[in-house]
Each structure stands twice: as structure tokens, then as C-alpha cells.
Amino acid sequence: MTGPGHASGRLGSRPVGAAPGEAWAAGVHALDLGGGAEVLLAVPPGEPVPRPLLVFFHGAGGTPAQSLGAVQQAAAGRGVLVLAPRSGAATWDLLTGRVGRDVAVLDAALQQVAGHAAVARCAVGGFSDGASYALSIGAANGDLFEAVLAFSPGFAAPPAAVGRPRIWITHGTGDRVLPVDRCGRRLAAAFDRSGYDVTYDEFDGGHVVRPEGVNAALDRWLG
Asked: What is the pTM of this model?
């Protein structure tokens, strides 16, 4: 499944546009990608018009169902499709030292989505390790993702730099897993210095995804 460019974090699929195949009905669909890949797509209710698409990465040891649990309700209320992949190992390939497999799975998933769901625009997000991955893969694919929504990220190591997606980062001041000083604050400042449009939201709390944070992130992206 891995192809040229995946080792540099680059995605070849471009799902933006009308879907050539039969539109998927509202609900949660398990994509058939083979090779043990697990990816869920949540389609909101309503007519199959072009919709925004959010790719959301879970934290270490998480699942696609947990990703949907964090963002699906707020996304559905805004007519947003949510694509939730599962990492091939306990966490994402970039964090284990070699980019490739998880990027390839996402590329294949985006290609399958393009066949059955009309997509108007794309963003990428995630929680914890998934937020670190979103910042890294988002910065490498700014020609596809117009925004990155990062909930309590630890770091960013883009394997490439293409385009300038808008960056939204939120972090709890009481986070004991990924402390705010060396994670959220540092990352927001670093992306700002690099010329990105950064919104940084700090809250009184720990290592969590808050519903109000999800609403704020979606509104920042879609607004």
C-alpha cells in the first residue's frame, strides 16, 4: 500500500469535488481497505451535497471509535464528514520513527471517500499523539488541509512543509501528561514564528478533549 511520497508524509489523494459513485448514507461506515487497516467514516444526515471533511487522529492506544466519540456530534451538527483512521501500531508511524504505513492508509482512505462522498474542503485534527501527528502531517499537506485542529499536542515534526494551513491549538494548564509549557505554548509560538496563522486556546483542565473546545475548533475552521 505504501507508495512514493508516503515516506515524506505526502498524500496523493484529493477528495475535494463531486463523488462519481453512489453516495454513502448517513451513519458510520467502516472502509474496506484490506491489510488490517481500520478506518471509520461518519456521514452526517441530510442530502449528499459537498461537505467539509475532518480527518481526526486518536491518541496513543486509542481507536477510531474514540475519535468519533470526541468530535462526531459537533461535526454532524455542522454537516461535517469525519474520517477516523487507526494507527498501525500503538501510536502513529511518525512517533515510532518512520513515516509511511499510516500515511499510506490515510491516502487510500481518502481515495475511497472521494468515490462516495462529495467533499467541499478538508482539515485534519487529533488528540494527544494524534494532535502531534495532525500538526506534522497537516504541515506537510497544506495544499490539501486548510486547517489543523490540535487538542493537547506534544510536538510537531513535519516530514515536509507544503502550504500554510491555519493552526488551532488548545491545551490544558493542568495537563500532567503533556505539560502546557513545553508542549502547547511552545508549539503555538513555534508555528507563529514560522509564519502560520495560529490560534491558541488555553483552558483550566487536564489532558482531555472538551466539547466546548471541539465547538470552538470547528467554528474557527469553518468560520
From this structure: 0.96
